[in-house]
Amino acid sequence: MTDRTAGAAEGAEHTVDKNDRLVILASSVGTVIEWYDFYLYGSLAAIITVQFFSGVNETTGYIFALMAFAAGFAVRPFGAIVFGRLGDLWGRKNTFLVTMLLMGLSTFVVGLLPPYAAIGIAAPIILVLMRLIQGLALGGEYGGAATYVAEHAPHGKRGFYTSFIQITATAGLVLSLVVILGVRFAVGEEAFAAWGWRIPFLVSILLLGVSLWIRLKLAESPSFKRMKAEGKGSATPLKDSFMKWPNLKLVLIALVGLTAGQAVIWYTGQFYALFFLERVLRVDATLVYVLLAIALLLASPFFIFWGWLSDKVGRKPIILAGCLLAAITYFPLFNALTEAANPRLAAGGGSAPVTVYADPADCHLQFDPVGKTVFNHSCDVAKSYLAKAGVTYTNVAAPAGTVAEVRIGDQTVVPSFRGDAMTTADFTAQKKTWEAGLGEALTAAGYPAKADSALVNKPMVVLILFILGFYVTMVYGPIAAALVEMFPTKIRYTSMSLPYHIGNGWFGGFLPTTAFAMVAATGNIYYGLWYPIVVALATVVLGFLLVKEGKDVDLNA
Predict the structure, then answer these.
(1) Contact at 8 Å (CB) between 275 and 45?
(2) DSSP string over 278-324
(3) Is 505 in the same domain as 399?
(4) Contact at 8 Å (CB) between 414 and 405?
(5) Same-domain check for residues 402 and 303
(6) 325 & 353 share domain
(7) What's CA 288's distance to the chain center, in Å?
């Protein structure tokens, strides 16, 4: 952290009037719409799997769909570099307009794409390309919005004002869920799965028009105009940000001491919770969206609260406390979520635990990038079905050459079969018959094929999701102010964007994919939680040791 200290003059130099507040609000509204575009894909991952990844096995297809979602996050740091540089050279406002246009058009195109069944491998390739464009645009969006708002805010209120930017991500997610629910109810579930899912993407073109109109009303930030007027701008913001050790050190500290932990808490509390409920616990998707939307709406005011409080007590203690609380409570919270959302599944796991008894050499990683591998060994057949069913199981090694068995409790044993010795047609027929038999055995033992919506403890689910969202508000509410305060005006856009988007794009964006793959590999539905817990704890330690408080720095120094 720099040692720049805010003087009394900072607050006197720029006083935020009503027009400034309207400008800041307009920036926030535009950012809501960008997040809406981005999160449509994540909310519709299950349908995307069927539409664009039907050429591979189901487990691989779902992981691929999550990878395509993560692809947008993977390129966000590169968007941060490109648009961060433009923002420091060209201005915050103009960069806003470019990122918005790229985001909106790429989202609209997704709604027009033919499925895999129509154009084959070209469908997922074009889809991933659109996701990459979205990611590049979003990589340039956040740093500009956060920097712009912070540079308008008076001293002592930066946390409060930037917290309105922080709330936009959740607001965009809620908006996407509301639109999806509205279309589902309007066209019906069958039509929505077939073609109705395209409507939320196509609607984005209208939102793009609104957003561009809002952004055109923005004025340039006073700090940027002052810097240009005084001739203090950087001609080489990339070099100054990343090729000079004093600033590069701050970039690395921001990443490991703030944004990495913030990112995994954010994605666990929102997207992984959604995936967990819908995919693992098999809760009806519409019900999941409703409950999650309610929880997020209840939690959202706390973005503002923590931003305001950070102006009083500092950014660092609030962010690190949120990371620590989340890491300590994730396992009991997700266990409670299972009990509340699918009590029959939870009861089945307690009364009739499932064991896969198999030769380890007969078991393979259930992921096929090219869609050519047929997982037809006896162990693969068993684990594939259990992963799809959201059933937790343990692995027990059997002697070499043993045909795998699924053991349910102490009494039921369902032998698998050697599909690798069969023709494709015989294997397909045998697999269908065998899965039906295993499904009946699991049902008889108390494992439901899907969660019974009538048995879902909806108030408890909302409460748990609210707690997860509350942690999100703690780590995310003050983060924009914390990052902006670490860097000087001439390279602020570039410098703060990169650690934010490496944290949120890589550490956070790959969380759903990584966690689901960990669950599928181990058979433990909670195993994926180790990923955010380890990252969050690392941020607590490194942030405590390395990050300096910056709430009182002068942004114009």
Answers:
(1) yes
(2) IIIS---HHHHHHHHHHHHHHHTHHHHHHHHHHHHH-SHHHHHHHHH
(3) no
(4) yes
(5) no
(6) no
(7) 16
Q: Which residue range(s) make up the domain with 288?
A: 17-342+453-546
250 plus 376 within the same structural domain: no
The amino acid at 92: R
Task: Look up tokens 């707690």; give the residue.
Answer: 467
- Does residue 368 share a domain with residue 329? no
H-run or E-run covering 452:
none
Residue 8 has pLDDT above 50, yes or no: no
In contact, 167 and 303? CB cutoff 8 Å = yes
Q: Where is the domain boundary, 386, 419, 444?
A: 444
Out of 90-99, 247-256, 321-330, 436-445, which region has the weakest mean confidence (pLDDT)? 90-99
Strands 354-358 and 412-415, by their bridges, are unpaired
CB atoms within 10 A of CB 94: 15
Q: What is the mean pLDDT of residues 451-458?
A: 92
Distance between CA atoms of residues 60 and 319, nearest Å: 36
Tokens 């691929």 correspond to 64
If one counts the domains in the chain, the total is 2
Q: Residue 345: what residue type? A: L
Q: Tell me the torsion sign for CA atoms 380, 382, 384, 390.
A: negative
Q: Are the C-beta atoms of 207 and 36 separated by less than 8 Å?
A: yes
Say what the pTM is. Answer: 0.80
First to last CA, the chain: 13
Domain stops at, among 444, 476, 501 = 444
Q: For residue 412, what is the DSSP state? A: E
**Given a cut of 50, is residue 6 above it in pLDDT?**
no
CA distance 407 to 385: 14
Identify which of 261, 251, 257, 256 has the alpha carbon closest to the alpha carbon of residue 535.
261
What per-residue confidence (pLDDT) applies to 223? 67
Task: Classify residue 7: in a domain, yes or no.
Answer: no
Q: Is 207 in the same domain as 304?
A: yes
Name the token pair of 419: 């599909």
The residue assigned the tokens 């992921």 is 367
- 167 neighbors 304 (Cβ within 8 angstroms): yes
Whether 177 and 37 share a structural domain: yes
DSSP string, 355-405: EEEE-GGG---S--TTS-----SHHHHHHHHHHHHT--EEEEE--TTPPPE
User: What are the tens digits of pLDDT across the range 202-225?
Assistant: 988 887 887 788 777 776 666 667
